[in-house]
Specification:
Promotes RNA polymerase assembly. Latches the N- and C-terminal regions of the beta' subunit thereby facilitating its interaction with the beta and alpha subunits. By secondary structure, this protein is an all-alpha fold. The chain has one domain. The chain is 53% helix and 0% strand.
Length: 66
């Protein structure tokens, strides 16, 4: 279960839970295939958690994956 970043904090960055899920899933797949990290340090060992961290750090937006 992902505790950080919280869904409330993520909703401040992207206004739809659906958009958060789609964006983070697409980014997680990209991380798995290409290993192109936007952050120097990820706290999460899982790709979805890393994608959510990138959203929180304003490195990833919905527009990146439309």
């Amino acid at each position: 279960m992902i505790l950080e970043p919280s869904i409330d904090n993520l909703l401040n960055k992207i206004d739809s839970k659906y958009a958060i899920v789609i964006t983070s899933a697409k980014r997680a797949r990209e991380l798995h295939e290409e290993q192109n990290y936007m952050l120097d340090n990820h706290r999460s060992p899982k790709y979805v958690g890393q994608a959510l961290e990138e959203i929180m750090d304003d490195k990833l937006t919905v527009e990146d994956y439309k």
